[in-house]
Design a protein that fits this description.
Length: 367
């Protein structure tokens, strides 16, 4: 099956020629990086087997955050870091979605409005959670932005993983939410809509927003994570350093068309879609985020400026938290030992590969 890099290599030049005046620099860079990833263009390292003397080239990764072949280790490191902040409480998975009428406006002002989407969702949830009827304290929120459906259609929404409880205003108690219930979704939807529009109008006073969005019900989803926060984290981690589609979902590339599989969320079945190569590239590139944009954000007791509240929450939940923490020394020693182990030879399967030199990049320096 073809990979995304092969599609970009075969059809990218024609796409660049057709849309060169309208393409963003980030889109051009993503196309080129994905094509060059793990090829001689970026250089790499040369290894040799100590048994069969076979040479093995390990080329550098492009490290572009939209590349489907990069960031496996980064994803694991992010997961490990998030696990350190998990509290022994119920967690809730929430999804905030913008109505279809706003999608074109958001695409034209991505850096501003996508950030406002994350901020409005988190602020709305924290405001309602502060009500003593529900939690009455400051909760913790992890927000991960998505802009796509499984069919690569532009669909901006943000996933939130929220703690089912928070630290009281006096910081002397940890207050729990009701079992399986965080806040009322109907009220949360109204607050979210008002907060988003307030921030959007303030940031973009010259932009005209359609009036119909006030008559349309915005979609907010909330569900207790009965399988635990780990499962939601694992789901979100797949998209923290990647975007839109993986190589395993691409089925074919022939006659200028690309076939891929996607899961229909309504029918819950896997389907196949075939698009013209230019349309496939267009759908992918519309999810390439602006340079410097943070798609993962932390709020409440998980915000970097509120880490003292997270420490306080752990202190208040000390007995439960201690059972989740493993000794730090064992983990670090195991990681260091794994780093020094030589790689097995892919040819003879018996010997091991040892570094013997570097491969110079062709055309430009390594990332």
């Amino acid at each position: 099956m073809p990979e995304l890099a092969e599609i970009f290599k075969a059809h990218g030049p024609k796409y660049l020629e057709e849309f060169k005046d309208r393409m963003l620099p980030g889109h051009r860079r993503a196309l080129q990086d994905i094509v060059d990833c793990r090829t001689e263009a970026l250089g790499g390292r040369l290894f040799q087997c100590d048994r069969c003397a076979e040479l093995y080239y390990a080329y550098h990764s492009c490290r572009n955050r939209h590349c489907p072949k990069c960031h496996g280790k980064d994803t694991q490191r992010w997961l490990d870091k998030c696990r350190e902040t998990l509290l022994p409480v119920m967690y809730f998975h929430l999804v905030f979605t913008l109505p279809q009428e706003l999608r074109e406006i958001v695409r034209a002002h991505q850096k501003v409005l996508l950030g406002i989407l994350c901020q409005a969702a988190a602020c709305s949830l924290m405001k309602l959670a502060m009500d003593p009827h529900y939690v009455g304290g400051t909760i913790g929120i992890l927000a991960v932005l998505h802009t796509w459906t499984r069919a690569l259609i532009y669909h901006p929404h943000v996933h939130l993983l929220a703690t089912g409880g928070g630290v009281s205003k006096e910081q002397d108690r940890f207050l729990f939410s009701r079992k399986g219930y965080l806040v009322p979704v109907e009220a949360l939807t109204v607050i979210f809509r008002a907060k988003f529009m307030e921030l959007a109008r303030s940031a973009l006073p010259d932009v005209k927003f359609p009036r119909s969005i006030w008559r349309k019900e915005w979609v907010v989803y909330s569900k207790a994570s009965v399988c635990g926060a780990e499962k939601v984290l694992a789901y979100l981690a797949r998209y923290v350093h990647r975007v839109a589609i993986t190589n395993s979902r691409i089925l074919s590339m022939e006659d200028g068309r690309v076939g891929f599989r996607y899961k229909d969320s309504r029918e819950r079945t896997w389907k196949t879609m075939t698009l013209a190569a230019s349309e496939f590239i267009r759908r992918f590139l519309q999810h390439v985020l602006p340079r410097g944009f943070h798609k993962v954000r932390y709020y409440g007791i998980l915000a970097p400026s509120n880490r003292h509240l997270l420490a306080k929450a752990k202190e208040l939940l000390a007995d439960a938290a201690r059972s989740r923490v493993s000794p730090a020394g064992d983990g670090s020693n195991g990681a260091s030992q794994a780093q020094v182990q030589p790689m097995p030879c892919p040819s003879c399967k018996i010997g091991h590969l040892f570094f013997i030199g570097r491969v110079a990049p062709k055309g430009r320096g390594p990332p």
